[in-house]
Design brief:
With 270 residues, the protein is an alpha/beta fold. It has a single domain, classed as TIM Barrel. It is built from eleven helices and ten strands. The protein has helices at 3-13, 38-50, 62-65, 68-85, 101-114, 128-131, 166-174, 195-201, 219-226, 239-242, 250-266, and strands at 17-20, 56-58, 90-97, 119-122, 141-147, 160-161, 164-165, 183-187, 207-209, 233-237. The strands form two sheets. The protein has an eight-stranded parallel barrel with strand order 1-2-3-4-5-8-9-10, surrounded by four helices. Helix 2 packs parallel to helix 4 and helix 2 (38-50) crosses helix 11. The radius of gyration is 18 Å and the shape is globular. InterPro entries: Aldolase_TIM, OMPdecase_type-2, OMPdeCOase_dom, RibuloseP-bd_barrel. One of its GO terms (molecular function) is orotidine-5'-phosphate decarboxylase activity. Residues 16-254 form the Orotidine 5'-phosphate decarboxylase domain.
Length: 270
């Protein structure tokens, strides 16, 4: 997907909401477990109920890989369903891949060619040659881990060298990589206090913001310093929406949660 298409969706829907499809069979409504593919059926209902309020979907691949071949097939069916019926939605494979160059090339082919996601999350620890293979794919986007929400992020991401924090160094160095205009960055909502500094380094890039809702981040805090002239934010919520109910009304309740978040975001979309 071209960035301009993403911007148009934000303006059309008055939303920056991305919904994380992190399916746990122990949390979905029990009546779905009798179906042949409960994971896909859950996703399908969630998508149908929420698609008018969001601009993207982000399946975390771990939640599919955990169920073996059945889980992977459900992931494939989910992305195929989105691409066929809701092609305007920006799709993110939350896979956090990253390896030596030839391995990264194969990861990129898996998510961009076989599954046909618009983007994939990538870990930058191994450096330039582990990320650039993802950046070779036209109209595909690589979302680099920048500053994450988890408590352990401080173990490494805040280490200081040459008067610069490690996560700041990652942001700066990545801007010099081939096709860096196709980079986006993961910035946790619970680290919103750093967004002013982050925007001084990458003023034009889109930021994927997880951690709103169940993890404690706020839309207001993210928008205050994270918005740019092209909006520049993809704000993700997973558990707070998809598990709003574990009864037969789960899709309806998810739709209401998504609508409420969209309404809150609308205030910041001028």
């Amino acid at each position: 997907m071209d960035i301009q298409n993403l911007i148009q969706q934000i303006e059309k829907k008055r939303s920056m909401l991305c919904i994380g499809l992190d399916v746990d069979l122990e949390k979905i409504p029990k009546h779905l477990l009798n179906l042949e593919d409960p994971i896909f059926e859950f996703n399908k209902k969630i998508i149908e109920a929420t698609q008018e309020y969001c601009i993207g979907y982000k399946p975390n691949t771990a939640f599919y890989e955990a169920y073996g071949i059945k889980g992977w097939k459900a992931l494939k069916k989910t992305i195929d369903y989105l691409n066929e019926f809701y092609p305007e939605q920006f799709t993110i494979a939350d896979a956090k891949r990253g390896d030596i160059g030839n391995t990264s090339t194969m990861y990129a082919k898996a998510f961009f060619e076989d599954l046909n996601f618009d983007s994939v999350t990538v870990a930058p620890y191994m450096g330039r040659d582990s990320v650039e293979p993802f950046l070779k794919f036209d109209k595909k986007h690589t979302i680099l881990l920048g500053l994450t929400s988890n408590q352990g992020s401080e173990d490494f991401q805040f280490l200081k060298s040459n008067d610069m924090l490690l996560f700041e160094s990652v942001l700066r160095k990545s801007q010099a990589w081939a096709n860096s205009k196709q980079l986006m960055y993961v910035i946790g909502a619970t680290k919103a206090s750093h967004l002013k500094t982050i925007r001084s380094i990458i003023p034009e890039s889109f930021l994927l913001i997880p951690g709103v809702g169940a993890q404690g981040g706020s839309i207001k805090g993210v928008c205050e310093f994270g918005l740019n002239d092209n909006y520049g934010l993809i704000i993700n919520s997973s558990r707070g929406i998809i598990y709003a109910s574990n009864q037969e009304d789960f899709a309806e309740k998810a739709g209401l949660k998504a609508k409420a978040m969209q309404k809150e975001m609308e205030y910041y979309i001028k």
